[in-house]
Amino acid sequence: MNDQQLVILLNEMTLEEKIAQLQQLAANFYEGAESGGQITGPMEAMGITDDMIINSGSVLGLSGAEQVIAVQEAHLRKNRLGIPLLMMADIVHGFKTIFPVPLAIGCSWDLERTERSAEIAAKESAVSGVHVTFAPMADLVRDPRWGRVMESTGEDPYLNGLYARAFVRGFQGSDLKGDVNRMAACVKHFAAYGLSEGGRDYNTVDLSERHLREYYLPAYRAALDEGAEMVMTSFNTIEGIPVSGNVKLLRDLLRDEWGFDGVLISDWGAVKELIPHGVAEDEAEAALKTIRAGVDIEMMTACYVHQLPELVASGQVEISLIDEAVLRILQLKERLGLFENPLRGADPVAEREVVFCEEHRTAARELAAKSCVLLKNEQVLPLAPGQRIALIGPFAASGDILGPWSWTGSTEDAVKLDAAMKARAGVGQITVAEGSGIDTFSEELWLEAETAAQAAEVIVLALGERSEMSGEAGSRSDIRLPEAQRELLLRLKALDKPLVVVLFNGRPLDLSGVYDMADAVLEAWFPGSEGGAAITSLLYGDENPSGRLSMSFPVAVGQIPVYYNHFNTGRPLGAPDADARYVSQYLDIPNEPLLPFGYGLSYTTFDYSEPVLSGDKMTGDQPIQISVTITNTGAVAGEEVVQLYIRDISGEVVRPMKELKDFAKISLSPGESRELTFTLTEEQLRYYHSDLSFASDPGKFELFVGPNSRDAKARGFRLELAAVENKRHVLS
Ligand code: GLC
Fold it and tell me: For the chain, what is the largest distance between any 2 Cα atoms, rounded to a whole number of angstroms?
C-alpha cells in the first residue's frame, strides 16, 4: 500500500482503534491464540480489555514460527480492518546462536563480522516470526558500575557509530520489504542513558547540550543515517525532563532537526514513569506529555488506551497527534510488507534448519575469538600441547556465558570451557575443579582444586560474574570479582605455578588482587554460544588474540569515570611545571586507568615506524596523509589494530586529550611489514562550539598513531582556514 492508501485506512479507523494501535503488550497477553488473549492476571491489573488486544498494534517478546503464525492469524480474524501485528523483541547479540555481548564485539574492531552477526541474528529471528529488534543499543558508556555497559560497544562516539551502522546494516539489509530474512532495527536508548548518575540504573542524567551532542548523540545519529527504522526512548531525564516526555529532545532535535519520521517507542513502562519522575500527576498527564513529545508506541503500560480518548474528546490532545503516530506505525508495517504478507518470514520448516545451524555457530565462534582481549601474558600463553592443565573456577564448566540479554539463547547448548579444552588437549591433559562458587567459598571445593593444581603444570582459572550481575538493573558499587573468587586465586597463587586467569564478565572490572597475581589474563566477556571453543583456540595459540579494549579498565572503582578522551584540566598531573600536590590527582591511586582504551596484547609483537605526514599544514580542501609501516617482529602471525587519534591543542572549548578518528585491523605474518596510509580531513576536526555550531578551528593539532590510546607516536600539524572557509554551521 502507498501512503495514500494508508491514509485511507487510517481514516477508516475509529478513535479507539487508532489509540489501540499505539499500545504494545507482552506476548503473555496473546498466549493461546484461539482465545486471542483472555482476561488474565496482567490484563486485569492493567485494565486491558479484549478489544484493546484485538486492536493493538504490536507485541513484545513473541517468537517461534508456529506461535507467531497462530497469534497473527487469530489477530487478523478478529481485527476489523485486518491490520497485522508487529512482532518486536530484544535480539541484542543473537537469537538462538548467541554472539558475544556487544561490549565484547566492541573489542573486536571487526565491523564485517559485526555486520555478519546481525545478519545471522536477523535470519534466525525472522524465520521465527520476529519483525523488529530492540537493537542496536548505542549508549556511550564510561561507568562500569552500570550493568548495561555490556550492551554497549564502548566509550568512543566514533567507534560506537561505526558499530551501530554495522548492526543496522546486518539487521535490515538493503531491502527490508523484499528480504524476509531481515528485520527492522530500533536504536536505543535515546538518549544518554549510559550517563546514569553513580552508574545506578534508571538514575538521573544531566549534561550540557554541547556535551550531549559531542559524545552521546553521534552513535544514535549514525544508526539513523544507516536507516534504522525505529528509536526507543530511555528511562532517564535530560535537562530535568524524562526523555519520553521531552519535546526538545524528541520533537525539536530527533524529528525536526534530524528529520527522523520513523516510529518512536517508549521503553518498558517509561510513559507511566513520568509520574514517579514527578512531571505528571496521573496517567492522563503522562499520556498528554508523551504523545505531545511524539512517542508513538507505549510499551507495557496503558496510559494511552485509558486516557487518550478523553484527552482527545476534551480537546487537550489534537487528533492529528494520534493520526501521525498511527500513520507512522502503519507505514512501518507497510515497509515490512506485512499488509501483503502478515506472516513475513515465519516458517516452521526453515526454522528447524536455520536456527542454531553449524554455519551460524561457526560465525559466533570466530567473532568470539576476535572479541577476547589478552590483557597480560608473562610468557605463559599459548599453552603447549601435552601440558598438564588444571582448569579451575566457577566458570570452568559453566554455561552461563551468554550474557544477560541472550533471551532465547540456551546455556545448555553453550560450548563450555572444560569440554572445549578436553576436546583440544585430550581428556587426560585437563583436570577440572570448580574451586569455589561465584560468591561462595568452600573448603571442600578448595581441597579438590588444590589437588588438581598440585598435579598440573599450569593452572587455568576461569573466574567472573554471574550474568545477572550485569545487564539491566545489574549495577554494582564494588566491581571487583567476588571475595570467594579472589580467595581462590590467592590460595592457588601460593602454589607457585603458572597461573592463567580467564574472565567472564559484562563490564570492565576492578582487577585489584587479580591482575597483579596472574601470569596471564584473557578477557573473554560473555563470549556467547561458542565461548568455550573460542577461548580454547586462543589459549592454545590456534588463533592469536586480537581484541582491543573499547572501554577502559579502572585501577579502582574510586577512579570512575575514567575514559581516554578526557580533558586536560588546568592543573594536569605530570605537567613539567606542576606542583607536587596542587594538581588534579588522587592521593592514593594514579589518574590513568589500569588498562586504556584500545589496549590489547598479542602472541607476537609489532613495530611501528615513525609516522610520516604528507605535510604539516592542513586546509579546508587539503587533507593530510599519514603513512606508517607496521612490522610483525615476532614468530607467529597476528592481527594488529592500528589506531589514529588527534588532539586539538586549543579549541573554543576544551578539547579531549585524544579522539579516535580512524583505525585499521591488519593481519601480518612473522617478519611481514605493511605500510598504511590514513587520510585526515578538516571535517574530522570539527566539533560543537559553545554556541552549538559545528566547525573546526584553525590552529595547532597533534595526531597520534599507535596500538592503543596510551602508547602512540605523536606528530604535530596546523589547520589553516581562509576566513570564508571557517563558516560555522550554527544550529537553528
Ligand atoms: C527493557 C530495556 C530495553 C528493552 C525493553 C523491552 O526495560 O530497557 O532495552 O528493549 O525493556 O524488553
Answer: 80
Rounded Cα distance, 74 and 721, in Å: 65
Which of 420, 631, 634 minimizes the C-alpha distance to 534? 420
Give per-residue burial for 524-548: e unless 16+ CB within 10 Å, then b: bbbbbbbbbbbbbbbbbeebbbbbb
Residue 40 has a pLDDT of 46
Contacts of residue 41, defined as CB under 8 A and 6 or more positions apart, other chains included, come to none
Classify strands 230-233 and 713-719 as parallel, antiparallel or unpaired.
unpaired
> In which element (H, E) is residue 612 found?
strand 612-613
User: Is the CB of residue 304 below 6 angstroms from any atom belonging to ligand 1?
Assistant: no
Output the CA 267–ligand 1 centroid distance in Å: 6
User: 267 catalytic, yes or no?
Assistant: yes
> How close is the Cα of 407 to the center of ligand 1, in Å?
12
- The alpha carbon of 12 and the centre of ligand 1 are apart by a number of angstroms equal to 33
By alpha-carbon position, which residue is closest to atom 8 of ligand 1? 267
Nearest alpha-carbon partner for 161 in 116, 110, 94, 226? 226
Annotated catalytic residue within 267, 347, 400, 510: 267
pLDDT of residue 41: 56
First to last CA, the chain: 36
Rounded average pLDDT per 10-residue block, the chain, 732 residues: 96 98 91 46 78 94 95 94 98 98 98 98 98 98 98 98 99 98 98 98 98 98 98 98 98 98 97 98 98 97 97 98 98 98 98 98 98 98 96 98 93 97 92 98 98 98 98 97 98 98 98 97 98 98 98 98 98 92 96 98 98 96 97 98 98 98 98 98 97 96 98 96 60 46
Pocket test for ligand 1, best of 25, 130, 265, 268 (most atoms within 8 A of CB): 268
Whether residue 283 contacts residue 307, with contact meaning beta carbons closer than 8 Å, is answered with yes
Of 684, 676, 533, nearest to 218 by C-alpha is 684
Q: Where are the beta strands (DSSP E) in 465-577?
A: 499-504, 520-523
151 lines ligand 1 (CB under 6 A): no
| 267 in contact with ligand 1, CB cutoff 6 A | yes
Decide: 472 in ligand 1 pocket, CB within 6 A.
Answer: yes
Residues 553, 509 contacting (CB under 8 angstroms):
yes
Cβ(99)–Cβ(105) below 8 Å: yes
Pocket test for ligand 1, best of 24, 87, 88, 90 (most atoms within 8 A of CB): 90
Which of 87, 88, 130, 472 is the best mutation target for the ligand 1 pocket, counting ligand atoms within 8 Å of the beta carbon and taking the most?
Answer: 472
Determine the distance separating the centroid of ligand 1 and the alpha carbon of 300, expressed in angstroms: 10
Residue ID of nearest Cα to ligand 1 atom 12 = 90
Q: What domains are defined for the chain?
A: 365-558 (3.40.50.1700), 604-732 (2.60.40.10)
According to the model, what pLDDT value does residue 134 have?
A: 98
Query: How many whole angstroms separate alpha carbon 416 and alpha carbon 537?
Result: 13
